[in-house]
Amino acid sequence: MAENRIEENRDGTIIRLQGGFYDVMTTQGEVRSRARGNFRKRGISPVVGDEVVLHIESETGYILEVKERQNFLVRPPVANIDQALLVVSAAEPDFSAHLLDRFLVLIEAKEIQPIIILTKMDLLQGTAEAEVRTAIAGYRQIGYQVIETSSETLEGVEEVRPLLREKTSVLAGQSGVGKSSLLNALDPTLDLETSHISKSLGRGRHTTRHVTLIPLADGLIADTPGFSNLDFPHEMEIEELRWCFPEFVARQDTCKYRGCLHLNEPGCAVKKSVEAEEIMSSRYTNYGMFVEEIKNRARRY
Ligand SMILES: Nc1nc2c(ncn2[C@@H]2O[C@H](COP(=O)(O)OP(=O)(O)OP(=O)(O)O)[C@@H](O)[C@H]2O)c(=O)[nH]1
Ligand SMILES: [Mg+2]
Ligand SMILES: [Zn+2]
């Protein structure tokens, strides 16, 4: 009887979006699916990581329902994430504390656990080396986990593996920093496409084109296309920003004013800590720049 059954409903997880199809992983394998019903009209657009209910009819799936999301990121578009691996390269492209802080804010705002992955440690040399090493120590001091890796020498790669166990992770980072290379280093059979960066531009070429959820090290990890810039979402308010800097949060109770934005208020404990070099000055500078950016954006709308 079971042999003849061609229609059934099954739960699954969207692992890929491609050419108008959703590839859904179920306990009985992958099913190429379409969205059924009026998802668009209802303002639902399924993304990778979504838990869905499929109706399966002769090997084609139809997504009947998208289950409620635990969380989701707009960029990269992934739902139900336990942690974000923020990938920044030590070189090629140059290490950017500004980009890393931008990233951290976006992830902190969603209350998703960030882990910082430094890639291309084998390329670190010259004057950049001291700067990057100081930054790494600084982020660790804040309490962030920072893993130093190289897909070339395989340094640190094995430290990533245990973090993936039983979690859904997302890799996020600029194009060309080595996200796909890191996954290949963890599992060469993945054979993900990677590219050569253009040295003159220091930019990658967006080799990974689609978000894909990949089973790896007893977990799921989303490889994503890199981005070239990252804007703050419209709903982000200035007041929210200071909550996205854990080392500011740790000190804000000693600011003279409640609700201190740590800008020009007198008796600001955060500013004092920056002066005492207990808070990285780059973090404080970036915070100020983000505040300005959101202010200016607010003026435009
Ligand atoms: N020397 C060195 N090169 C690396 C390392 N990791 C990656 N690369 C090189 O950097 C280039 C870009 O790597 P990718 O893995 O394609 O980067 P990506 O982050 O996946 O880029 P997108 O898919 O465009 O977002 C490739 O030429 C890699 O060989 C590393 O640890 N050391
Ligand atoms: Mg890639
Ligand atoms: Zn303050």
Automatic annotation (TrEMBL):
Keywords, ordered alphabetically: Cytoplasm, GTP-binding, Hydrolase, Metal-binding, Nucleotide-binding, Ribosome biogenesis, RNA-binding, rRNA-binding, Zinc
CDD domains membership: S1_YloQ_GTPase, YjeQ_EngC
InterPro entries, alphabetized: G_CP_dom (IPR030378), NA-bd_OB-fold (IPR012340), P-loop_NTPase (IPR027417), Ribosome_biogen_GTPase_RsgA (IPR004881), RsgA_GTPase_dom (IPR010914), RsgA_N (IPR031944)
Enzyme Commission number, as recorded: 3.6.1.-
Record text on cofactor binding: Binds 1 zinc ion per subunit.
GO CC, one annotated term: cytoplasm
Name the record gives this protein: Small ribosomal subunit biogenesis GTPase RsgA
Gene: rsgA
